[in-house]
Every structure is written in structure tokens, then in C-alpha cells.
Design a protein that fits this description.
There is one protein chain. The protein is an alpha/beta fold. 54% of the residues lie in helices and 28% in strands. The strands form two sheets. A six-stranded mixed β-sheet has the order 3-4-5-6-7-8, with helices on both faces. The protein has a two-stranded antiparallel sheet with strand order 1-2. A hairpin with a 2-residue loop joins β7 and β8. α2 runs parallel beside α3. The relative contact order is 0.10.
């Protein structure tokens, strides 16, 4: 290699270093810009999360109010009639609740009682299919455990609501659970395949 070739090679290395330094400077500026954008997005994300949380809280309040309306509607009608699925009952217990150390373990929206039968009716604005299964498989056994005075009573189950999907109606029939729905100022009670538990 000649002296000139060596000088040219060293010069090209110096030129490459200048290009690399310029690229590094540009990359550092972009990283700084991206970091700033990420911080801005984090602030925006926090604000969005806060807004979503507030909206959820408000919607939950609306949902609770609608649920309370459904509960009150069905309680008022059943209190006046004291009949369910062809049976007459002596009393209605609204919002039957079991608490331990001041903490609610479980609550039943409507319980109708006579000397040999109980009717347990849960109310929701809109009933979901999983709720039907939960009533039969989880909530009824807890009821029998927590209120042993009714353990020998025949139990009839019902779901009351303003809105039912086809899947809910299928699940209710499968489990032998009565469906109560609003019709004007009264209720319609469907007892298809009602099961005694």
C-alpha cells in the first residue's frame, strides 16, 4: 500500500466517523423525541384511564339504579299476590341477607315462604345465562346451608327481569327455573318444566 492509498484510507475512515457521529446525533434526537412523546402519551393515558374509571363509576350507579328498580317492581307485585307457580305463600321476605362480622355473605332478592315450600326469586334488569346456572348450582345450596329452618322445604326457583335473551330462556328451562317478566303493570310467569329442588 502506498502512502497516498494509506492517506486516502485514513481520510475515508475520518469521513465515516463524521457520518456515524451525525447519525448518532440524529438517533439521540429521535430517542429524545420518542421519550417526550411517550411521556405525553403516559399523561394522556392516565387522563383517559381516569375518565374511563369515572364513566364506569357513573354507569355502575345507573346500572345499580336500574337493578334496584327491577327488584322493587317484582317485590311489590309478589308482595301483593303472595303466589308463585300455583302456590300460595304466607309471607315474602325481601332482600334476605346473611352477614358475618358486618360483611354481607349473600343476599336473596325475594323469598316467599309457607309451611312446606320456599320460592327464591332473583331479580336483575337483564338476566345473563351464567346467572341461571349460578342460582341453581351455587346460590340454592348456600341458601339451604345458611337458613337450615328451610332445609326440608320444597324449593322453587325463579328469575325476574325486564330483558331476557333466548339463551337465558333455554338455560332456565334446562334448570327448571321459572321466568318472571314485566308485562305492562303486572308480570307474566312462565313455569315451563318447573323443577322442585
Amino acid at each position: 500500500m502506498t502512502d497516498q492509498e494509506l492517506k486516502d484510507l485514513v481520510a475515508s475512515f475520518a469521513e465515516d466517523r463524521k457520518e456515524i457521529a451525525a447519525r448518532d446525533k440524529e438517533a439521540a434526537a429521535r430517542i429524545k423525541e420518542i421519550d417526550l412523546l411517550m411521556k405525553e402519551n403516559a399523561i394522556e393515558r392516565k387522563e383517559t384511564d381516569r375518565m374511563i374509571k369515572e364513566l364506569s363509576r357513573r354507569m355502575g350507579g345507573v346500572d345499580d339504579n336500574i337493578g334496584s328498580h327491577a327488584e322493587q317492581f317484582f317485590q311489590n307485585i309478589l308482595r301483593g299476590k303472595l303466589t308463585f307457580a300455583g302456590q300460595r305463600y304466607d309471607k315474602m321476605i325481601p332482600n334476605l341477607e346473611c352477614c358475618k362480622n358486618g360483611v354481607s355473605l349473600i343476599e336473596f332478592d325475594i323469598v316467599l315462604v309457607n309451611g312446606k315450600s320456599v320460592a327464591i326469586i332473583e331479580t336483575k334488569h337483564r338476566i345473563h345465562p351464567k346467572f341461571v346456572k349460578e342460582l341453581a348450582e351455587d346460590r340454592l345450596p348456600k341458601f339451604r346451608e345458611l337458613w337450615p329452618e328451610y332445609s326440608k322445604h320444597k324449593a322453587y326457583l325463579g328469575i325476574a327481569g325486564f330483558s331476557f335473551s333466548k339463551k337465558v330462556l333455554e338455560e332456565a328451562e334446562k334448570y327448571g327455573i321459572c321466568v318472571l317478566r314485566q308485562v305492562g303493570d303486572s308480570i307474566e310467569i312462565k313455569t315451563n318444566k318447573l323443577r322442585v329442588y
